[in-house]
Amino acid sequence: MARLPYSGGMIAFHRVGLEYPRTGTKALYNVNLEVKKGEFVYVVGHSGAGKSTLLSLILRRLLPTQGAVYFAGQNLKSLRGDQVALHRRRIGMVFQDHRLLSDLTVEENLAFVLEVQGVPRKEWPERIATALRRVGLAHKKRAFPEELSVGEAQRVAIARALLLDPPVILADEPTGNLDLENALQVLDILKAAHSRGATVVVATHSRELLEAYPARVVVLKAGQVVRDERPGEGGSIRVRESPDRGGKEGT
Ligand SMILES: Nc1ncnc2c1ncn2[C@@H]1O[C@H](COP(=O)(O)OP(=O)(O)O)[C@@H](O)[C@H]1O
Ligand SMILES: [Mg+2]
Question: What residues are neighbours of ligand 2 (ion), with CB under 5 Å?
């Protein structure tokens, strides 16, 4: 198995470049990034900066055209066949749009995931109830997506992403369609998953989110990491130049 370039990382990018082959667009250049287990990280940057591309590499929807992406110490390039699906099962993914199935109720949308993942049927009611309770929507289990507000639908999408308690949660502009109140509810849910131990990466434009829940911020600009900052002790911001520090950051 390939060696992890940095110790202890849940996710590590090692000199990653990504060029989309069909168009020749270079979306990422020489990205070095390490996300430790249990970290909460925002990825920010203008539209086109490469945020979604970065998340797609973690999901292994894409393979880097340069360098390597590691997940729990494993080079994602080395995954074969079934291992790709198993890898994606370790990740809860949330998009800007909820992507619920419109002809299924809320609980059926969740049951669908459990069925696809082969979870025994007798576990479904409790898993679904827990997931909906976590997003405050137990009372909406028989609603269809079109009977929900945009914020509620997005919370169901998060419940679906959290259903199997994945160790890693990736959210791609999860509050992009929401007003501040709903955005903060979404953030509270992601925060709760983080405090249960999940590693969370959130791509966002929203300054309000960053202020409501300060955490490490990785700034992408035209495909490069131009800043990587953590809130320091006493609220000051410390800029980190290289991702090679060994110690665990207080959270
Ligand atoms: N499937 C694709 N094929 C070709 N180019 C793409 C594709 N997806 C994104 N890009 C390009 O890659 C760059 C980064 O895009 P993206 O990762 O979506 O940025 P962001 O999520 O920060 O807006 C942009 O120039 C975009 O046009
Ligand atoms: Mg994007």
Answer: 51-52
